Amino acid sequence: MKVYLAIVALTALISFALTPMARMLGVRGRVYTPSRKRDMHREPIPKLGGAAMAIAVIIVMGAASIVPFLSGIYQAPILGILLAILVVLIMGVADDLWDLHWIVKFAGQIVAAGIVAAAGIRVEAMPVGWIHVDNELAQIVITIFVIVLTINAFNFIDGLDGLAAGVAVIGGSAFFIYSYILTRTINAYDYSNLATLLTALLIGACIGFLPFNFHPARIFMGEVGAQLIGLLMATAAVAVTADLGALEGFRFRNVPAYMPILLPLAVMLLPLLDLFMAVLRRTARRSSPFTADRGHIHHKLVDGGYTHRQAVLLLYLWTFVVGYGAVSLTYFPAEIVITVTLVAMALLVLLTLRPWIMRRTYYRKLNRLREAKAAERAAQRSSETGDPLGG
């Protein structure tokens, strides 16, 4: 655990140190996010923060290769992940500079995901009844689909200051705990694990960047940051799901067989839900799924009455409850975890709908007051017209 925590701390420090430099370059190069109707900000803000995050991850990845504890996982897959991060970095910076067409960005995402799959990190079994995927081409296609889906899910929720980075820290920490304890269960002598390393790097990069990105943001992560988060999160999920040695560990500990797929879905519930709703909404309008609009969950919360920070903190709470609720199923009685999680989610539903409930209550009271005043005036007119003596 000490090695992983050191990786988190080192990545956070480097990300924290590089982010102001990225901001300075963004300001000097005028690499700004333009102010649009759907945006929350009203002034130009540089958007190269993701480059600082990616460089921090690459530096610490390289430094960690000399740590004897991690020597077992520094093989071909690591080189593939590094190359995929470089693709995300180059394509993301190019998009921040020149606003690439969505087809070009999509192709870059497929290339990055394909590199990860070609390096050997693939979905080898579907954790629903443990359906094995024996065909190599099918493994690659499914892996690319999962990674590209996750990249775009995080890209879609990157609409409020600190939202994507904070969700990644909370969800990534739940995944980190799960992966680390799982590794210790499977092998009592070697705790090194690729998924745990990737989530440690992800958490550190986001923690270092978040102080500059939380509302009011001084810099945005841009395309690089959102795609980096999606790439690392999805690759970690695939690495855990495809760990056939882990399956025996699950059976041995009587852990639910669906946990390898449940936890990634729970951690990424908010981004995936927002992505799904956006695709449906835009398809219904007969526009491209990649066409930007102001219909995302975070936009609805702000439009509904929450402040910028309140909306972000509320979505943090949702991520925490769902993510840690899922990981708790592995270590605590299911009845207790499900009960507590459902109660917490019910309270979150009420909290989420609070502005609309308050507004509806206000208008109901206003309408009743208007009706009472109208009835009072009608009664007054009736009494005046029905009394010829005026008394």
UniProtKB/TrEMBL annotation:
<keyword id="KW-0812">Transmembrane</keyword>
<feature type="transmembrane region" description="Helical">
    <location>
        <begin position="336"/>
        <end position="357"/>
    </location>
</feature>
<keyword id="KW-1003">Cell membrane</keyword>
<feature type="transmembrane region" description="Helical">
    <location>
        <begin position="106"/>
        <end position="125"/>
    </location>
</feature>
<feature type="transmembrane region" description="Helical">
    <location>
        <begin position="163"/>
        <end position="182"/>
    </location>
</feature>
<feature type="transmembrane region" description="Helical">
    <location>
        <begin position="224"/>
        <end position="245"/>
    </location>
</feature>
<feature type="transmembrane region" description="Helical">
    <location>
        <begin position="137"/>
        <end position="156"/>
    </location>
</feature>
<protein>
    <submittedName>
        <fullName>UDP-GlcNAc:undecaprenyl-phosphate GlcNAc-1-phosphate transferase</fullName>
        <ecNumber>2.7.8.33</ecNumber>
    </submittedName>
</protein>
<feature type="transmembrane region" description="Helical">
    <location>
        <begin position="6"/>
        <end position="27"/>
    </location>
</feature>
<dbReference type="InterPro" id="IPR018480">
    <property type="entry name" value="PNAcMuramoyl-5peptid_Trfase_CS"/>
</dbReference>
<dbReference type="Pfam" id="PF00953">
    <property type="entry name" value="Glycos_transf_4"/>
</dbReference>
<dbReference type="InterPro" id="IPR000715">
    <property type="entry name" value="Glycosyl_transferase_4"/>
</dbReference>
<feature type="transmembrane region" description="Helical">
    <location>
        <begin position="194"/>
        <end position="212"/>
    </location>
</feature>
<feature type="transmembrane region" description="Helical">
    <location>
        <begin position="257"/>
        <end position="280"/>
    </location>
</feature>
<feature type="transmembrane region" description="Helical">
    <location>
        <begin position="48"/>
        <end position="67"/>
    </location>
</feature>
<keyword id="KW-1133">Transmembrane helix</keyword>
<feature type="transmembrane region" description="Helical">
    <location>
        <begin position="311"/>
        <end position="330"/>
    </location>
</feature>
<keyword id="KW-0472">Membrane</keyword>
<keyword id="KW-0808">Transferase</keyword>
<feature type="transmembrane region" description="Helical">
    <location>
        <begin position="73"/>
        <end position="94"/>
    </location>
</feature>
<dbReference type="GO" id="GO:0036380">
    <property type="term" value="F:UDP-N-acetylglucosamine-undecaprenyl-phosphate N-acetylglucosaminephosphotransferase activity"/>
</dbReference>
